[in-house]
Amino acid sequence: CRLLSARGKQSSIKAGYCRVNQFINLITNSISPFNSLEVWLPSGPNIKPQSADIFDLGYIVSFPRNHLSFQASTFYKNMANQIGYKYHASMLVNPAIEGELRQGRGWAYGLELSARKESGKLTGQVSYTWSRSFLKIDGLNNNQAFPATYDRPHSFSASLAYQSKPRWLYSADFCISSGARITTPTAFYYYQGYQVPVYTKQNNDQFPVYNRFDFSIRHRLNKKEQRFTHFLNFSVLNLLGKPNPIFLNFNKIKIPGKNGDEFYIPMDKLNFKPVTPTIRYTYWIVPSLTYQLKF
């Protein structure tokens, strides 16, 4: 990696370049984070190592009197030998799993804006990111570029901490972002008595917006700072109970056809009223109480 910088009294400009390589590849049959069916596959004669060239440019300005700093940065990433999966790939206990994989190139770019306050009773950071990520893999999407699974154009996050008294600290974290990309069928056909889904484009759909609000309170049990300091932490994840989908399965619509009843899935599946999708959400409010010893 290389880094160039030019500094002023309260501002600086930074430019960087980095090349990274990955020789062990994560192979999974799902984009869900709650999935244990994963294989770490080393690179070899049939699977080339993944690589990426990353370029970034940033500008930082600080205001010491107000303990504030602002940053704007942009990046471009060029990726090679990215891994994709052929349609209807068999990923479970497959000794010839390399035959289910496809490789191609990818690219990503974006802009990030952030503001930070690092001292005082109220501290925190607010940031917004706009980014895009695409892949072009042989044998997928008619060899045309398509959005990557992790292509989330908009992302906003805010983290605030308020220390009302030396022993009490209140923290709040909020994030909202575009939903993850998914591939859904647009139609079905019958083959030897089985329904076969038809996919027109790779990652043609998207989960609803993801958002979450977390809150925590930390209390120092010691009246004064000591060598051994004890803390009691109470936190609540997803305090507002917002549902965030992690799994989606659409019910098909039956309509009369020339050769009998036909089944199809409408293109606008999320907003089509007659469709009742089966969706798994993470909407639980998760409280926790922990003890911390600092020495």
Keywords:
mainly beta, 22 strands, Maltoporin, Chain A, 295 residues, twelve-stranded antiparallel β-sheet, 0% helix
Write the layout of secondary structure elements.
Blueprint lengths: L1 E6 L3 E12 L1 E5 L9 E5 L7 E14 L4 E18 L15 E17 L4 E16 L8 E2 L6 E12 L2 E10 L3 E2 L4 E5 L2 E5 L6 E2 L3 E11 L8 E9 L6 E6 L3 E5 L2 E5 L13 E5 L3 E9 L1
Antiparallel strand pairs: 1-2, 2-5, 3-4, 5-6, 6-7, 7-8, 8-9, 8-10, 10-11, 11-16, 12-15, 13-14, 16-17, 17-22, 18-21, 19-20
The description of the largest β-sheet is: 12 strands, antiparallel
Beta strand count? 22
Give the uncertain stretches in residue-range form. 272-278
Helix content: under 10%
Name the average pLDDT: 85
Spell the H/E element sequence: EEEEEEEEEEEEEEEEEEEEEE
How many separate domains? 1
> Strand fraction band?
over 45%
**Outline:** globular
Within the CATH hierarchy, at the fold level, what is the topology?
Answer: Maltoporin, Chain A
Q: Any idea what the CATH architecture is? A: Beta Barrel
So what's the oligomer here?
single chain
Which structural class do you get from the secondary structure elements?
mainly beta
Annotated CATH homologous superfamily: TonB-dependent receptor, beta-barrel domain
Number of distinct helices? 0
What is the class in the CATH system?
Mainly Beta
Give the end-to-end Cα distance, rounded to a whole number of Å: 36 Å
Radius of gyration: 24 Å
Describe the overall structure:
This protein is an all-beta fold and 295 residues long. The chain has one domain (2-244, 284-294): Maltoporin, Chain A (Beta Barrel). It has strands at 2-7, 11-22, 24-28, 38-42, 50-63, 68-85, 101-117, 122-137, 146-147, 154-165, 168-177, 181-182, 187-191, 194-198, 205-206, 210-220, 229-237, 244-249, 253-257, 260-264, 278-282, 286-294. Strands 1, 2, 5, 6, 7, 8, 9, 10, 11, 16, 17 and 22 form a 12-stranded antiparallel beta sheet that branches. Strands 3-4 form a two-stranded antiparallel sheet. Strands 12-15 form a two-stranded antiparallel ribbon. Strand 7 (101-117) and strand 8 form a beta hairpin. The model is unreliable at 272-278 (pLDDT under 50).
